[in-house]
Amino acid sequence: MIRIEGLRFRYGEGDFQLRIPELLVEPGTTTAFIGPSGSGKTTLLNLIAGIIRPETGRVETRNVEVSALSDPERRRFRVTTVGLVFQEFELLEYLSVLDNILLPYRIHAALQLDATVRDRARALAERVGISDKLDRPPRRLSQGERQRVAVCRAVLTDPPLLLTDEPTGNLDPVNRERVLDILFDYVRESGTTLVSVTHDHEILARFGRVVDFRDFHSVGEAGVS
Ligand code: ADP
Ligand code: MG
Fold it and tell me: What is the pLDDT of residue 14?
């Protein structure tokens, strides 16, 4: 599903450098990215999603070399292939909860918003327990509810790849388990590949594999795969 080779990435400013000689993620697996704050976990999700491009090396997702696509191609790739749950949820305050869930269909012509999609959005909302709040703005939701909106939005397109960035970081234990159950139930049913950043060691047992970003700071060429 994901194949990274010889990746190096730096932001325009600062000394941070991400170096990943090799990383493979098999289709249908669940992987946790762990590591200290600032070790590049969010950066790598953005590279995999094609939001940013590496300085050198390849990022291949679903046999597409994302790092070689043009900007419009990468945007198209992202909306059709990747479901993203961001660290800060990234819900839009001027849209209702329902329109936030439908957002991927509003921002890209590759996705066609029709009655089937609306029904699916409502069914997802029902399933995660927010169907009575679809007309509200996100600020009138609890953190746990907001995170569930973000999850609904990410899975609405039925993406083969789901990337989540500390999906339980801002949640109390009850909501944490609830959001994880929703995510892992979805993954099990759909066969989607899940890659999730987390600093929460209590949830690592749920994942098939754990990748520790401390390994990407050693200067040696030992690959992580
Ligand atoms: P993590 O998610 O593991 O906490 P990040 O990938 O967010 O780490 O960040 C890795 C490093 O890159 C940090 O040192 C951070 O300050 C820096 N960084 C993140 N985003 C940017 C940016 N847009 N511009 C410059 N530096 C950034
Ligand atoms: Mg981060």
Answer: 84
